[in-house]
Amino acid sequence: MHRKTPLHLATLAASLTLLASTASAGTLYRDPYLQKVGPDTATVAFRLAANCQAEVRYGEGAADQSAVSQDSGKAHAVVLTGLKPGTEYTYEVSACGLRTPLNRFRTAPVPGTRSVHFITVGDFGTGGSNQRKVVSAMVKRNAELFVALGDNAYADGTEAEIQNNLFVPMEALLAQVPFFAALGNHEYVTNQGQPYLDNLYLPSNNPEGTERYYSFDWGHVHFVALDSNCAVGLASADRCTRDAQKTWLERDLAGSTQPWKIVFFHHPPWSSGEHGSQLSMRRHFGPIMEKYGVDLVLTGHDHNYERSKPMKGDGIAADGEQGIPYLVVGGGGATLRQLPGSKPDWSVIRDNQTYGFLDVTVVDGTLTAELMGHDGTTADRFTLQKDLPPQEPLPEGELALVVEGERGVAPHRALFRATPTLTGAAVTWDFGDGGAAEGEAVEHVFALPGQYTVTATATQGAVKQTATALVQVAEAESPGEEPQTPDPGTPDTGSPSPRPGLPDSPEDPDDGLSASSGGCAAGPTATLLPASLALLAAGLLYRRRK
């Protein structure tokens, strides 16, 4: 018989098929999602389908560093430390002998950096087609962070709904864009939002140390997330109180040094939609936000879009007064609703036809926002302006850099010292071979021959100084010797306290899709590949060459 496929290739194909089926059997229950990303840290959270050791491999360009999970069971949150501000990192999750495809994310810029790009929307967590269209459009914007405005997991915020209506349809976005969320009333249906909080790893810088309300800086923008459910009386006193949240908000805003301040939560103080204005939020929190110069308030709850004029107290700010524009951005996926009555005089625009999100850039003293439909159309656009003081100029002179060991033979150890003119500046190093370090005086071993550009960066706030040096590394004289690669050590992978475990068998999502669509078995972008696959293929091809 004439064989069209050589036997060794047929064997290879059969082996690949077998290993591919093995990969599908051991998948992530939930794909990686990014939490608490800052200038020098990031948390990569994920859920496994089985209990096993897990790690996150990451790096600039190549994923050549490793952080081992300190969690046991299926719920994991791996903290990456020592990262560079405003830098793109590649990462993958390795667990149970399998690994995810590579993803990328960018760390937050140095605080005070005058360029920020974020996306925001609420009322999306249905798991339906409209939500998926909005998510697809958001992914294309390549934003630095995603701010969610509540009702992120309909209808009751249960464990299954959080998985199927939040993490499954949002997986492509949450794997690339850091996720900062506020609680909605639908999450509160189940144990006052506890399942939702158990699945997220948010900042917890309030006196209670909870994640219900918090703040963080991104560039020159100070973001504040409030729990409006607590403020309107839906929380028990042991979880959250309105007065405690008000006291914290005043202290937080008073202590912020960033020129832009944005507050986000679920229930709108100003809305002419079906639910209308939440007067408790307006009268208890509005005066505090006005006092400390909040620039923009973002909310959801009503399933439409609405933008107010600058408001102060219970009315429109007078000419010459600083007011706050209040936005309802509730077109993320839940059914859009009719707008009752005519548009009030304080409302600039109302839209209940657009499933979409708000795309916001803040560059220097200009904030530009666009309501983007999932089809790429723009339904609203506005700008806010403010005068900012000029940025501190770069100090005169260059960063002084001293190198001991500019030439050597692999493996070659070199010593470096940087002397910044910036008082109290932090110095970071890029050695050009994937290695990095912090501190004014460091040493590094170059394991392989080559020419390496070493870059030192001194940072103080938004001011930077840099200097570079070349290091030449030659091959060892004895061709029989292989360079010794030093053990870089294992990074500190401190982890948040473990969250409650997940069901052994994922429940079916409400939209009829299999639960595996939320994990790595969903397709080429979510399938874990065994490391042994490449070894097997290489071995068979080697036999073929013989």
Automatic annotation (TrEMBL):
InterPro entries per UniProt: Calcineurin-like_PHP, DUF7800, FN3_dom, Ig-like_fold, Metallo-depent_PP-like, MPP_PAP, PAPs-like, PKD/Chitinase_dom
CDD domains, alphabetized: FN3, MPP_PAPs, PKD
Pfam families from the UniProt entry: DUF7800 (PF25077), Metallophos (PF00149), PKD_4 (PF18911)
Gene3D superfamilies per record: 3.60.21.10, Immunoglobulins (2.60.40.10), Purple acid phosphatase-like, N-terminal (2.60.40.380)
A GO MF label: acid phosphatase activity
Keywords of this entry: Glycoprotein, Hydrolase, Signal
Signal peptide: 1-25
Residue span(s) of domain PKD: 397-473
Segments for region (Disordered): 475-524
Compositionally biased intervals (Low complexity): 514-524
PROSITE patterns named in the record: PKD
Protein name as it appears in the record: Metallophosphoesterase
Source organism (scientific name): Corallococcus macrosporus DSM 14697
